[in-house]
Design brief:
Low-confidence stretches: 89-121, 197-202
Distance between the termini: 48 Å
Mean pLDDT: 72
Strand content: under 5%
Oligomer: single chain
Length: about 230
């Protein structure tokens, strides 16, 4: 007995779960992708779609991601769907893949601090995605940057990342010092015991610096802008 071909409406209904999951995947913070059962093709499709900022380009990339999801068997699809749902909105800690270069641990800096060190700087979410990727897997992300942005200067990008890590590490030290100063300046402490008066006399400049981060964001914005012009988006 011949099977009856599915109507277009039925095919769309069948594909809806994959489109829904594709939409969820692009919202997953990049460091958390390491917690998901993604092969290289699927991971690249997720990263590419998440990096698209123009509405039409992002929609096409998500549609492509849904197509890639069709290659999964039912068990693999359900396992991935459950893994994504288990993350929640803020679920789980930032995970650094074992053996990858450049995650915050190697520089002594908390990974989460590096990714969102100062939200007031207003980096585009797609740029934040690239920054998080550089944190989780610098070598792999530099390779993808070379593929995504033909004009990229990898030496410059690598140096900007290195400077950013050093700056973030210094800022973390400053924040720690500021917290200690605030504790020492608590009401009731005498000058002899390191109270407000003595702290005021010796208080260092504890203002964090963001020059390196700003330069990294600027270069990534420049690369993405050239990419959009090149694609005619």
């Amino acid at each position: 007995m011949e099977s009856i071909p599915k109507s277009r409406a039925q095919r769309r209904r069948d594909d809806q779960p994959r489109h829904d999951l594709a939409g969820k995947l692009v919202q997953v913070p990049v460091p958390k992708l390491a917690r998901l059962p993604l092969d290289d093709e699927l991971r690249d499709a997720v990263t590419f779609a998440a990096a698209r900022t123009e509405h039409g380009a992002r929609r096409r990339a998500i549609r492509h991601l849904a197509t890639v999801l069709r290659t999964l068997d039912e068990d693999s699809f359900v396992a991935l769907e459950q893994a994504v749902d288990s993350l929640g909105t803020n679920g789980g800690a930032v995970v650094t893949p074992v053996g990858t270069a450049g995650a915050g641990a190697s520089s002594g800096v908390t990974p989460g601090l590096l990714v969102g060190e100062d939200s007031s700087l207003g980096a585009d979410p797609a740029v934040e995605g690239w920054i998080a990727n550089l944190l989780a897997d610098e070598a792999g992300t530099l390779t993808r940057a070379r593929e995504s942005f033909p004009a990229v200067d990898l030496t410059r990008l690598r140096q900007l990342v290195r400077n950013w890590r050093r700056e973030a590490q210094a800022n973390e030290v400053l924040r720690s010092a500021a917290a200690k100063s605030a504790t020492a300046a608590a009401p009731g402490r005498s000058p002899e015991a390191g109270g407000p008066e003595s702290v005021a006399k010796t208080k260092p400049n504890l203002k964090p610096k963001h020059r390196a981060r700003t330069r990294l964001i600027g270069y990534l914005n420049e690369l993405m802008s050239m990419d959009h012009r090149g694609r005619g988006e």
